[in-house]
Write a structure and sequence with these properties.
The chain has 355 residues and is mostly beta strands. The chain has two domains: 1-48, no CATH class; 65-353, Outer membrane phospholipase (ompla), Chain C (Beta Barrel), CATH 2.40.230. The protein has helices at 2-29, 239-245; strands at 65-78, 91-106, 109-124, 130-145, 150-160, 165-169, 171-174, 177-180, 187-193, 199-212, 215-228, 267-284, 287-298, 306-316, 321-331, 340-353. It has a twelve-stranded antiparallel barrel with strand order 1-2-3-4-5-10-11-12-13-14-15-16. The chain has a two-stranded antiparallel sheet with strand order 6-9. Strands 7-8 form a two-stranded antiparallel sheet. A hairpin with a 4-residue loop joins strand 4 and strand 5 (150-160). It is globular, with a radius of gyration of 38 Å.
Length: 355
């Protein structure tokens, strides 16, 4: 008991000493009326050692680039039994696509490059395999913003196809008469297109209107387009050349003119006014519409412009499986006096980056 009391008295004494020292320290820290902290008064605080806290150097960089990529494969197959009375033909279609877009934005400058590649083939029973999709499209644009929605732009575009395209016939011309092919099957009757036959390069300068990220409209007052046909099999032929190359076809009555090029020509340059509209908009959570319209009016004959509309409606079934409905409307009087069109419906696996 005595020991406990002794320990308690010692603790109380130590506590009193600490309090006294604390009061003394506080008194020393009090500023005198004529003291100046600005000029470095000699106080206990001024004699404390300074603690240097190192600040880490942040390695931060601004990335002005954005990238998007899509690639996938589409397939379509149908088959019928030999006793299928409703009619039909066994067929198999396979197609692939790849798309990439890169965009650079810094201050008022913008650069955009977009590549769209498509290729597909279809094979019907007792028929030759035919391509049902074939496109190379590469668009590059450099723009300088004048305001929030308007910009000056310069663009360079390349268009062509990968594979050879043919015309087919189930008949042949012999001794002035049209008769069926002896084997009853179709044959290749003419070369229609191939890589760089035709190939198009288009340079355009003008104003761009872009109210939001999903829509843009280019007004190309200064536009030039070069048309090249570098494959001799696709070039235009004279009447005599056609008869010699395709003796089983019905003879032509006048020299050919393909892609605005006459026999012996492989290059053509046109100066024109161009309108290009791009739309890439989500209509719903899993439904996207992407379209591109191009008007090309040659200054030599501005009343007869070329038109092309590409549109794709894509519905996302899962993260990887999509259903797409695509269509193309094309009018070019140098190729045909009527409107050309194509349409396709496909289901496929699409992989997108970034996820």
């Amino acid at each position: 008991m005595f020991n406990k009391v002794k320990i308690l008295l010692v603790l109380m004494a130590l506590k009193g000493v600490d309090a006294a020292y604390a009061q003394a320290d506080l008194k020393d820290l009090r500023a005198k009326p004529d003291s100046s902290f600005v000029e470095g008064a000699d106080t206990p605080l001024s004699r404390l050692n300074k603690l240097h806290v190192p600040i880490p150097k942040l390695d931060l960089e601004v990335d002005y680039w954005k990238h998007w990529t899509k690639f996938g494969i589409n397939a379509n197959q149908s088959s019928f039994s030999d006793n299928w009375n409703a009619g039909g033909v066994n067929s198999m279609a396979l197609g692939g696509l790849a798309w990439h877009k890169s965009e650079f934005n810094k201050n008022n400058f913008q650069f955009v490059t977009e590549v769209d590649l498509k290729y597909g083939k279809i094979k019907n029973k007792d028929q030759l395999a035919k391509k049902n999709n074939d496109r190379i499209f590469w668009d590059n644009k450099l723009a300088y913003k004048l305001s929030k929605t308007w910009a000056l732009y310069f663009s360079l575009t390349f268009e062509s196809q990968f594979d050879v395209g043919y015309a087919y016939s189930k008949n042949m011309y012999v001794d002035g008469k049209v008769i069926p092919n002896p084997d009853g099957k179709e044959r290749i009757s003419e070369y229609m297109s191939s890589f760089m036959a035709p190939g198009y390069f288009t340079e355009s300068f003008g104003l761009e209107y872009k109210p939001d990220k999903s829509f843009s409209l280019r007004l190309g007052t200064g536009t030039a387009r070069q048309t090249l046909v570098l494959d001799d099999r696709v070039k235009s032929l004279t009447v005599a050349e056609y008869k010699e190359r395709y003796p089983l076809n019905v003879p032509i009555s006048s020299d050919q003119s393909k892609f605005g090029l006459k026999p012996g020509e492989s290059f053509r340059n046109d100066l024109a006014f161009q309108i290009t509209a791009n739309l890439d908009r989500d209509l719903a959570k899993n439904l996207n519409l992407k379209a591109r319209y191009n008007l090309f009016a040659d200054y030599k004959d501005i009343s007869d412009p070329d038109h092309r509309l590409d549109a794709t409606l894509t519905a996302k079934v899962t993260n990887a499986v999509n259903v797409s409905l695509s269509g193309i409307l094309l009018y070019n009087s140098t190729e045909s006096t009527k409107v050309q069109y194509s349409q396709s419906l496909a289901m496929g696996v699409i992989y997108s980056l970034p996820r």
